Automatic annotation (TrEMBL), chain A:
It is found in: Membrane. Residues 16-387 form the Cation/H+ exchanger transmembrane domain. This is Cation/H+ exchanger transmembrane domain-containing protein. Its main location: membrane. Keywords: Membrane, Transmembrane, Transmembrane helix. It is a multi-pass membrane protein. One of its GO terms (biological process) is proton transmembrane transport. It comes from candidate division TA06 bacterium DG_78.
């Protein structure tokens, strides 16, 4: 019904004000975008043009490249040093815990293929930092538990993206989605290594090129164009060379952060550009949801919801135990990791572009439905975790009283 | 070719790590805007800078540095009506708590063209200047370069 430009404008404006309305009821913009995406999508108002829906894969690839690039800046020597032992151990434990539990449940109970089990398992640890941060701000939570929780949610998307890249490489080998000359197990292993190491190497090389030619950049607008150009070249070359575009962009971000003096400026410039891209990305994710699939939330989705959180809690418990963290952190930190949104949907959309058939459809529809569930119950669970840890020191800030 | 040291402003007010928030604010209360304030150690080594942004950060709840790297995080606007500030902050908060450790300083023998390029690239109107021994020698701003150009043409 709408032409592409008209629906683009409508989507941006409705997304903007929708997020403002949602912030009044303490839900993050990401949730608002997904919900308004569903409302604007083909099953309800049908304001999103077919052309725009078809561009979802392109938008999500760009959005995830930017996310991976931005997460890469955490991997500098000084930042890794600052992260601290317990955040490191808990985040690794939580990622492995949910990965193992979800993968096993999907493989053994739902009897899905190993590829689906590995990919869903790898998406499971991703947390929605926006929702967690929103709750800690709203209840003015403060203390060691809160700091550890925020540190873990900030870093675990990076681990999740790495794990996902490995699992996609394995899944491609298992399903024979790649074409090799020697179709043997040996070539599958080589291919897996190529996808992972090749991605990292590509990102580092582009990162060196970036820092070398940076001296010819004179103004902020040129800097923005320069960064975007190299991120797109990095992403495009990854697709062309069949290496992981997520790892390539993370390696690019890490190389820039390590090599360029005052690299914060570079990441800041990008922040001026990416909000509309992220808005579009989430609205399209909502619009892509097959509404009928909600009614038939399969055993797969139920298993995912039931195993993800216990996996995170168990993994966080073990990680906290190894790092000798406080009792409260051991017991409740995993609960605070319940929200899931942006990165999970992005990874599911990316899976669909690698596996356009049944595997991709199954994973995308499962993740979109389970994300809505986790994004709605997640903030309540974070609140419970903070309360149990005794770090909610004040009554919730009520905006109506201020007026 | 003109260099930074020919143009820069040298009579800059500096502070130390242990300067309190109260001392800092009263020093600059009579200025129309808050400048960049260099933080130096006893031997004049530049160890940090304070800008308006660091003062604004005091009005926001403390959050870990690592959150800055998270994409699609909603920026929390400062609500002036509900800011938690106590009078004790005046002497409890010192420059060391709020200053920027990572900052960009330029060498005094750099050309003014290059200095201007860096200011535009980093979106800064002023940058601190150091000599070869990393000692603080002054501040250069776009204003200094512009007035230098005007005076060079005999306009004032």
């Amino acid at each position: 019904m709408f032409n592409t430009i008209l629906s683009l404008g409508t989507v941006l404006i409705i997304g903007l004000f929708g997020a403002r309305i949602f912030s009044k009821i303490s839900l993050p913009s990401v949730t608002a975008y997904i919900v308004f995406g569903i409302i604007l999508g083909p099953y309800v108002l049908n304001f999103v043009s077919p052309d725009m829906l078809r561009s979802s894969a392109l938008i999500s690839t760009i959005a995830l490249s930017l996310v991976a690039f931005s997460l890469g800046q955490n991997f500098t020597i000084s930042k890794l040093h600052n992260i601290g032992k317990s955040i490191f151990a808990i985040s690794i434990g939580e990622v492995l815990g949910s990965f193992i539990l979800v993968s096993l449940a999907v493989f053994l109970i739902a009897r899905q293929s190993l590829s689906i089990a590995l990919i869903l398992g790898a998406i499971a640890p991703a947390t929605a930092p926006a929702a967690v941060v929103m709750v800690t701000r709203e209840y003015r939570a403060r203390g060691r538990f809160t700091d550890t929780l925020l540190g873990v949610v900030a870093i675990d998307d990076a681990w999740s993206i790495m794990l996902f890249a490995f699992c996609i490489a394995i899944a491609k080998s298992l399903t024979g989605a790649h074409t090799g000359i020697f179709a043997t197990i040996f070539s599958d292993i080589i291919h897996g290594f190529w996808e992972v190491l090749g991605g990292l190497a590509l990102g580092v090389i582009i990162g060196f090129i970036f820092s070398y030619f940076l001296k010819y950049i004179n103004t902020l607008p040129h800097l923005l164009i320069y960064i975007l150009g190299l991120i797109f070249i990095n992403t495009g070359a990854s697709i062309l060379l069949n290496v992981s575009l997520l790892l390539a962009n993370m390696a690019l971000g890490a190389t820039v952060a390590n090599k360029v003096k005052m690299s914060e400026n570079i990441f800041d410039v990008l922040r001026g550009f990416d909000p509309p891209i992220y808005l579009l990305f989430f609205i399209l994710a909502g619009a892509n949801l097959e509404i009928p699939s909600i009614y038939s939330l399969s055993i797969l989705g139920i298993l995912y919801v039931l195993t993800r959180l216990p996996g995170e809690m168990l993994g966080a418990f073990i990680g906290a135990h190894i790092a000798k963290a406080d009792k409260n952190i051991k017991k409740y930190l995993g609960l605070g990791l319940a929200p899931q949104a942006g990165v999970a949907i992005g990874l599911a959309l990316l899976t669909k572009s690698y596996f356009p058939g049944a595997i991709g459809d199954k994973i995308l529809s499962t993740i979109i439905v389970t994300t809505i569930i986790y994004e709605l119950i997640g903030p309540f669970l974070v609140r419970i975790a903070l309360k149990k840890a005794g770090e909610i020191d004040k009554l919730p800030h009520d905006y109506r009283k201020v007026q | 070719m003109k260099h930074v040291k020919d143009v820069m402003f040298r009579q800059v007010i500096t502070v130390h790590r242990h300067t309190t928030l109260r001392q800092l604010l009263s020093k600059f209360a009579e200025f129309h805007t808050f400048p960049i304030v260099p933080v130096v150690e006893r031997d004049n080594i530049l160890v940090g800078i304070i800008t308006l942004k660091n003062l604004l950060d005091l009005l926001k709840p403390a959050e870990p540095e690592i959150l800055k790297t998270i994409p699609f995080l909603d920026e929390k606007p400062i609500e002036i009506s509900s800011v938690e500030l106590s009078p004790e902050m005046g002497h409890l908060v010192v420059v060391d708590d709020i200053m920027e450790n990572k900052f960009f300083a330029i060498q005094e023998d750099m050309s003014i063209e290059e200095a201007l390029r860096l200011m535009r690239l980093h979106n800064k109107e002023q940058l601190p200047v150091i000599n070869k021994d990393k000692k603080f020698t002054g501040v250069i701003g776009i204003f200094d370069i512009v007035t230098h150009l005007f005076s060079g043409k005999g306009i004032f």
